[in-house]
Amino acid sequence: MTQATVDTGVITKAVELACHAPSLHNSQPWRWSAGSTAVDLFLDPHRLVTAADSSGREAVISCGALLDHFQVAMAAAGWNAAVDQFPNPNDLDHLASIDFAPMDYVTQPRRDRAEAILLRRTDRRPFRAPNEWASLESVLGSSFENDGIELAVLADEARPRLAEASRLTEALRRYDDSYHHELAWWTAPSRESEGIPESALASGSAARAVAVNRRFPADWHSERSSASRPDQARIVVLSTPGDTRADALDCGRALSAVLLECTLAGLATCPVTHLTEIAASRAIVGDLTGSPAVPQVLIRVGVAPSGEVPPPTPRRPLRDVLEFHR
Ligand SMILES: Cc1cc2nc3c(=O)[nH]c(=O)nc-3n(C[C@H](O)[C@H](O)[C@H](O)COP(=O)(O)O)c2cc1C
């Protein structure tokens, strides 16, 4: 245990920045409990997206992304954050306990990484293929420390089968009323600090040009753009050795690292998970990676189309997610 005391202002700022992490439908299923020497992260079981994510797997992935964002934010403030995952075997919603040690100096790359948190957003428009992919691919592979996580880049030839798996997922869910009701709820205009605003959804032909993503209610009726070229994004898959809560948390931490690395490289990203929510399509993704590991998240990576970058999505007020104890 390091047990160094950290100013509450530093912790508050780092938590606030970390909360810009991506989460399924922007559900932000997390809660922080902070003291001056340690911070605890909990899954908030009241914020699960149950029809899409009945086991809470993607909620834990979201919390993993938050956890990595928090470490990035603390590092930029000069603190090394040591993470103890699942410190209480009787409470698996207690995802991590984190304590701190001062760093000797803060390098510019660490500050850049923290700045990338505010630049990153989920971009659902069709992308152009990224340039100089080979060098980025090796950087992405080493952007996270966990050797158990596999990062696979799907070949262009995999695209038609993946698009087919995406259609299969939608078809299998066509009459799943609770799934569609839930999606409509999380994308309703009345959501203020949670959910996906209309401005963050690609519309009309832009959405239809992306064969590999979840279909949102807005995809079919609104039309903000003229005919779009088919998506040329690279598709990266993160897979884990098993399908436990620890696997999901590890995967979320790696997801954050990959997204921030892509953002630093000036590329747009979009996590895609509907394919992992249905056993049949998950099996196809696994087959395409050529690995026995369990696919958790796909990430579209590419060059964003010119024009307006989608505005940032809102977050819950800090007082709703962070409490300090003595
Ligand atoms: C576990 C997870 C699953 C996600 N699945 C999808 C998805 O299938 N399709 C999609 O367009 N976005 C997906 N997202 C992106 C979220 O909708 C997005 O992070 C959230 O709305 C917040 O917006 P932001 O990423 O722009 O900050 C996912 C994010 C996470 C962390």
Can you describe this structure?
With 326 residues, the protein is an alpha+beta fold. The chain is built from eleven helices and nine strands. The protein has helices at 8-18, 57-76, 108-119, 133-141, 159-172, 177-186, 204-208, 218-221, 245-264, 279-289, 318-321; strands at 30-34, 38-43, 79-85, 94-102, 150-153, 234-240, 268-272, 294-302, 322-324. It has a five-stranded mixed beta sheet with strand order 3-4-2-1-9. Helix 1 (8-18) crosses helix 2 (57-76) and helix 2 (57-76) packs across helix 9. The mean pLDDT is 95. The chain binds flavin mononucleotide. Flavin mononucleotide is lined by residues 22-26, 58, 61-62, 65, 121-122, 124, 196, 200, 213-214, 270-274, 297, 313. One of its GO terms (molecular function) is oxidoreductase activity.
Supply the key terms.
globular; five-stranded mixed β-sheet; binds flavin mononucleotide; 326 residues; 17% strand; NADH Oxidase; alpha+beta; single chain
Globally, the shape reads globular
Number of helices: 11
**Can you tell me the CATH architecture of the largest domain?**
3-Layer(aba) Sandwich
Biggest sheet: strand arrangement = 3-4-2-1-9
Q: How many structural domains in the coordinates?
A: 2
**What is the SS-derived class?**
alpha+beta
CATH superfamily of the largest domain: NADH Oxidase
**Average of the residue pLDDT scores:** 95
CATH topology-level fold name of the largest domain = NADH Oxidase
Main beta sheet strand tally, sense and closure: 5 strands, mixed
